[in-house]
Design brief:
The chain is α/β, with parallel strands linked by helices. Among the domains are: 89 residues, Ubiquitin-like (UB roll), CATH 3.10.20; 189 residues, Rossmann fold (3-Layer(aba) Sandwich). It contains 10 helices and 22 strands. An 8-stranded mixed beta sheet has the order 14-13-20-19-18-15-16-17. The protein has a 5-stranded mixed beta sheet with strand order 2-1-5-3-4, sandwiched between helices. A 3-stranded antiparallel beta sheet has the order 10-11-12, with no helix packed on it. Helix 2 packs across helix 3. The protein starts with a strand and ends with a helix. The structure holds iron/sulfur cluster (2 copies) and FE2/S2 (inorganic) cluster. FE2/S2 (inorganic) cluster binds next to loops. One iron/sulfur cluster binds next to helix 6.
C-alpha cells in the first residue's frame, strides 16, 4: 500500500521519496515557488514554498521536504502566510517598480505572488542596488535589477544545456547573476531561460515589446523544426504569430525547446512569403488569381512528372498527394525531400545530447511509413510538381533535371522560387491541422492556430479545384 499524507485536510497517496511540492502539484494544490522547477535540481533557496507540517516546530520548504506516511501539511495557515509575506518583502527590497514597462508583466511569478502573498507596504528605505547589464547574445535580454537570485538560469545551463555559462558573482546584497566572464550565451537552448526565469530579468529579445501577453491566443501544437516533434504552444493575435513556447511532454521534450524551433515561425507572416497564386511571365513570378494559376499549372504539368513531396507535410497531405499522383498523372515518380543528405529515416540522427535531430523536417518518418523514398537529385523529367510545407529545404539543382515547367504547391519564399513557373500558395504548420510522426514513431497532431495567410489554400482544396 502506498504511503499517504494530508494536505489542507485532504489525503493523498505518494511514492516514497517524493517532495511535498510534487504531491501538491500533482493534485492541484497551489504552492508558490521561485527556485523550484521540476526539470532542475532542488536547491531550496528562495523559501517561498513555505508550508507548515504538524509536529515540526519550524516552517518547512515544500520543495525540499520529503513527504512521510501520516504527515499532516498546511499550505495556508497564518504561520505560512506570514512566512510568505516576509519572503516577498525581502525579495522586493531591491526590485524596481518596473511592472508597467516590463515584458514579463502578465505572466510574472514575482508580480503574481506579490499580489497574492505580498504585503502592501515595504519597510525598506535604503537605496536600491542597480546593475549595468552586459549583452548576453542574440536571444536573451538581461535586466539584473529584477533578479531574485533563484538560480534557475544557472542550473539550466549546467544541467540541461550541458555546460556552465551562468554564474552568481559576489555574495549577500551584492550578488549578481551573469554569464561566465560576461560572454554571450553559446547554448542553442537559450530561449528556455526566458521561460523559466520567474521575473523579467531574462526576456526574449525576439518578443520584447511586440505584444502584451494577455492579448495572445494560445494553441497547443507540435514544432515542425526537426524530427523530434517537441510539443509547443503557438501564441498569436489577429493572424500574426508572436512566439512559440514549450509545452511539457515527458516522453519527447520534457519542458524545453531549442532556439531553432522556437524562432521557426517568422516565415509565416513574412512579406517575402508568396501568399497569392503566381505565374511566371518574362522570367519572374507575377501575382495572378487562383483560376488562372490553376489553369496554367494543369496545362504545363505533362509528360513524365517528378512529384516531390516535402517531408514537412502531414500524413493526410502526403496521402492526398499519393492519391493525386496515382489518379491524375499518367507517368510520374513520387519522392520526398526535406533535409540535404536525408534520403531515408536511417540518415536521421541526434544532433546534440538534448533535443535537436539532424532531419530538419518533422515528418520524415511519416513519409517513410507511407512508402515514400527520398529524391537523390537525379533523373530527367518533362515537368515537376513540388509540394512544400514551409520547412523543407528547397530541392537543390531541380532545374537541371526538369525540361519543362516546375509548379510549386505550398509555402515558398519569393527569393527561393526562381525555378518555379507557377506557385499555388499553401498552408504552413500553424495554419492547418494534421498528423506527423516523430523519430520515435509517435504520431502527434498539428493544430491550426491562425487562418490561412493571404490567398493560401490547403492541398486538398487545390486538388479539388484541379479537376
Ligand atoms: S536571472 Fe531569473 S532565473 Fe536567473 S537567478 Fe535571476 S531571477 Fe532567477
Ligand atoms: S528539437 Fe526539433 S522539434 Fe524540438 S524545438 Fe528544436 S527544432 Fe523543434
Ligand atoms: S521553491 Fe522551495 S525554496 Fe524555492
Amino acid at each position: 500500500m502506498s504511503p499517504k499524507c494530508t494536505i489542507d485536510g485532504k489525503e493523498y497517496e505518494f511514492k516514497p521519496g517524493e517532495m511535498i511540492i510534487q504531491i501538491a502539484d500533482r493534485n492541484g494544490v497551489a504552492v508558490p515557488r521561485f527556485c523550484y522547477h521540476p526539470g532542475l535540481t532542488i536547491v531550496a533557496q528562495c523559501r517561498m514554498c513555505a508550508v507548515e507540517v504538524e509536529k515540526m516546530p519550524k516552517i518547512q520548504t515544500a520543495c525540499s521536504t520529503p513527504a512521510a506516511d501520516g504527515m499532516v501539511i498546511h499550505t495556508g495557515s497564518e504561520k505560512v502566510k506570514s512566512a510568505q509575506s516576509s519572503v516577498m518583502e525581502f525579495l522586493l527590497i531591491n526590485h524596481p517598480l518596473d511592472c508597467p514597462i516590463c515584458d514579463k508583466s502578465g505572466e510574472c511569478d514575482l508580480q503574481n505572488y506579490s499580489f497574492d502573498y505580498g504585503a502592501p507596504d515595504s519597510r525598506y528605505e535604503e537605496q536600491r542596488r542597480t546593475y549595468m547589464d552586459l549583452d548576453m547574445g542574440p536571444v536573451i535580454k538581461k535586466n539584473m535589477n529584477r533578479c531574485i537570485h533563484c538560480t534557475r538560469c544557472i542550473r539550466f545551463c549546467d544541467e540541461v544545456g550541458g555546460f556552465r555559462e551562468m554564474v552568481a558573482l559576489k555574495r549577500g546584497n551584492n550578488v549578481e547573476i551573469t554569464t561566465v566572464d560576461g560572454k554571450a550565451l553559446e547554448t542553442d537552448y537559450a530561449g528556455n531561460l526566458a521561460d523559466i526565469c520567474p521575473t523579467g530579468s531574462l526576456t526574449l529579445k525576439d518578443f520584447r515589446f511586440r505584444k502584451r501577453v494577455w492579448y495572445l491566443k494560445k494553441t497547443k501544437s507540435v514544432c515542425e523544426g526537426c524530427s523530434r516533434g517537441c510539443n509547443i504552444e503557438i501564441h498569436q493575435e489577429n493572424g500574426v504569430v508572436y512566439r512559440l513556447l514549450p509545452r511539457e511532454n515527458m516522453e519527447i521534450n520534457k519542458w524545453w525547446i531549442c532556439d531553432e524551433g522556437r524562432f521557426n515561425f517568422h516565415y509565416v507572416n513574412a512579406p517575402s512569403r508568396i501568399v497569392e497564386p503566381s505565374v511566371k511571365t518574362a522570367a519572374q513570378l507575377e501575382t495572378s488569381d487562383w483560376s488562372t494559376a490553376l489553369a496554367e499549372a494543369r496545362r504545363r504539368i505533362s509528360g513524365k512528372v517528378l512529384v516531390l513531396a516535402g517531408s514537412d507535410l502531414t500524413l493526410e497531405e502526403l496521402r492526398a498527394i499519393q492519391k493525386f499522383a496515382a489518379d491524375r498523372l499518367k507517368e510520374c515518380a513520387l519522392l520526398h525531400f526535406g533535409t540535404p543528405g536525408h534520403l531515408s529515416a536511417d540518415d536521421d540522427k541526434d544532433e546534440d545530447k538534448i533535443l535537436r535531430r539532424t532531419s530538419k523536417t518533422s515528418n520524415l518518418h511519416g513519409a517513410e511509413k507511407l512508402g515514400l523514398r527520398g529524391w537523390k537529385g537525379d533523373g530527367s523529367y518533362d515537368s515537376a510538381l513540388v509540394f512544400r510545407g514551409g520547412r523543407a529545404a528547397l530541392p537543390h539543382g531541380l532545374r537541371r533535371h526538369v525540361k519543362g515547367a516546375i509548379v510549386g504547391v505550398g509555402v515558398f519564399p519569393r527569393e527561393g522560387a526562381g525555378d518555379f513557373d507557377v506557385v499555388l500558395p499553401g498552408l504552413s504548420y500553424v495554419e492547418k491541422s494534421g498528423t506527423i510522426v516523430n523519430w520515435q514513431g509517435k504520431e502527434q497532431k498539428l493544430q491550426r492556430s491562425i487562418e490561412p495567410v493571404g490567398l493560401s489554400k490547403g492541398i486538398a482544396d487545390v486538388f479539388a479545384m484541379w479537376a
